[in-house]
Amino acid sequence: MNLHSPLSIVCLWTALLSVCLTNQSRLPAQDQENQPSAETEQAQKAQALKHAQQGQTYLKQKHWKKAIAEFQAAIKLQPENSMLHYLLSVSYLEDSQGSLAWIEVRKAVLLDLKNQNAMQQFLKFWSFFDKQGVLNVGTPEVEVLKLLGPPDRKQEQGADTRLTYGFMWLTLRNASLFAVIDTRGLEAEYTKALQTMEFELGPDWRVGYRLMNGTSALTEYVTTEETVQKYQQLFSTQRLFKLGKETSAEDMMKRMKSLIEQSYEVETWTVISDGQDDVIFEWKVAASDKTPAQHEINRIVRGKRDIHRLAYVTRKLPLSEADRKKWIEELKSARVVLANPGKQPLTPEQKAELVKQLTTKSREIIALQLKYIQAGDVESMRPFFTERLRDRITKESLAEAKEQAASATPEELVHSVTIEEVGDGIQAKIKMKNGRTLTTLVPVNRKWEADTIWFK
């Protein structure tokens, strides 16, 4: 695979390399007792520079293996030098030893994130892996390791595993890829959402990709038969860190418009619903060498801390007016809700808002479940309940509930909601009109699941 720029571009000036080799950080005098003498250090740097200069000469002459030997010798003398690891990576890549080149460029970027040559080469490797689909949600760990090789570090965290490659983290859940995390500039404060957008896509959609970096958290959904590398329809949700404190939804839309117009030929741009804190808009772009022609509908909402964005993209053109209206309504119906309510204390105002949200949402879900009971649809019913209950939802149990469910209404079954604190978390009691408890809801992975089978 040809991941790097032509050699004439990546060759470095000897003077620059000399600076990199001589400007190493020094220990305070009191900590140098067991360190080599200043004379020895200078001699090592001079020898490393000599090997590096010879390695560059061999690179220009296309003597790859000789270049590798020289850069290896230089690294033995100066193991913390990012530029030397980068040049060794270039040499390995020219010699068709891609796996060794990948290891060395990871070392280079970890030693110096400002090494732009190393960063560019690292990101070209990463782009190659991405195009192969190995970074998609659901990729088995064995397939990740097969293409990316052994990680720099592997950590077990309960049911999760973290594989580290340079500054990129891959989070795996139950031995499958769950998310990609670019740690450059990522602050721990923003990894935890205060609010999130709640929406319903239906069973024909699945998560295809998750990425968190220093500016945002992005999740992309595709239909079950497509991938994020090759799709006709895509739905995405994005949380832009701290921008809710800095800009309005309207200004964020204008900023996006400016960026899109710089990169694509915009055929139309229409604001559907305008507002300072909540705006819906759409645009169409013509086909280019970067992307096929596509139609995108967006909603941007200003949260308490972050900006939230939802988007539907289609390359199945033209988008019918019926489908256009359907997706506009889908975006309008999404709501900003408290994120991970079971993991943080609630103020009285937050608790009241949560009760309101759960009452409305529970009635909508119960209405769906009543239909599933009538249809005997076991698979559609099970995701609404906690894992321990799902096997107890069967064709027989739905059949037994069918007659009673035929006369029930969501308003009778969900009359009120009470939030209760349990240990370090919370749960929600759903009360019927007759005062009896219908079921108990518990927060699981940013959604609420019933912890009792209410239709028995």
From TrEMBL:
<dbReference type="Pfam" id="PF07719">
    <property type="entry name" value="TPR_2"/>
</dbReference>
<dbReference type="InterPro" id="IPR011990">
    <property type="entry name" value="TPR-like_helical_dom_sf"/>
</dbReference>
<dbReference type="InterPro" id="IPR019734">
    <property type="entry name" value="TPR_rpt"/>
</dbReference>
<dbReference type="InterPro" id="IPR013105">
    <property type="entry name" value="TPR_2"/>
</dbReference>
<protein>
    <submittedName>
        <fullName>Tetratricopeptide repeat protein</fullName>
    </submittedName>
</protein>
<feature type="repeat" description="TPR">
    <location>
        <begin position="48"/>
        <end position="81"/>
    </location>
</feature>
<keyword id="KW-0677">Repeat</keyword>
<keyword id="KW-0802">TPR repeat</keyword>
